[in-house]
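Lab notebook, bench 4. We co-purified these components, and the gel suggests they stay together. Before we commit to crystallization screens, I want a quick structural picture of the whole thing.
Request: model the full complex, all chains together.
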Amino acid sequence: MDILLALVVAVLLVVGGLFALLAAIGIVRLPDVYTRMHAASKAGTVGSSLMLVAAGLHSGEFATFARAFAGVVFFILTAPVAAHLVAKAAHQAGYRLSRGAVCDDMRDKAKN
Amino acid sequence: MPSAEEKRQRTGLVLPTGFAGLWLLLFCLWLIFNSSLALPILATGVVAATALAWIFTTRSTVWHYVRLTPRTLYHFLAYTGVFFVELVKANVNMLRYVYSPRIDIRPGIVKIRMRLRSPIGRLALANSIALTPGSLVMDVEDDALYVHWLDVRTTDIDEASEMIAGPFEKHLGRVFG
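Here is the predicted assembly.
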């Protein structure tokens, strides 16, 4: 039973770390601020959530796990808001979409 | 809220709409964070939850739309399930985009329509959209959401609405209206 729990914790930690790495590489590789916010908000949230759950499981106490889980919930509630605000601020400041962009309904709205 | 006003006139005092739900939520959070049932902690939690719930339900109307019934609970759980499936899909997609040798995306901002009316329902929808496959809410305007889409598949407003908001709206509409 102990070894099973340790295995689950190890897998969660490694996968969480991989997603955090994915967020970091995404921020470097993607072309503009909007697409970068995608990487930061999604992969970053899942990476840190998995590691929090791993920490909660490893403690073996329900109280610690409940707190870790509450942390996950707050992550899910707040990370999208932050990403939204960064993207909206960038758009209002006039930051263009990358060259491959297909359409920009928001700029069209501002023109009309 | 005319019915609450009538009750207030009849009985003198009535709890604001949505007070009980918010109080329960705050008190449960307090219990989780303290993870103790000692009397002083319980008493502090009751006082703090009452004060916060009172302030937020009398000063803003956001919490008035939350109804607590078994039906909304069921739809909320179903929504949570849909949400986690979409979250996993979003991250597998992200994995594919980012680790592929040539980044193959067609980004763009599209306008979609939402059917939800209440502010808290819209907040939940916008948050869900931000965490699901390749979409990020940029702005809200009346009934329209401007969504940054990592891989634009259609610019038609109805098709886009269905693809982005469709999975969540059904359940969220039942919970928050």
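Chain A touches chain B through 45 residues (CB under 8 Å). Worth comparing against the SEC data before the next meeting. Residues 2-111 of chain A form one domain.
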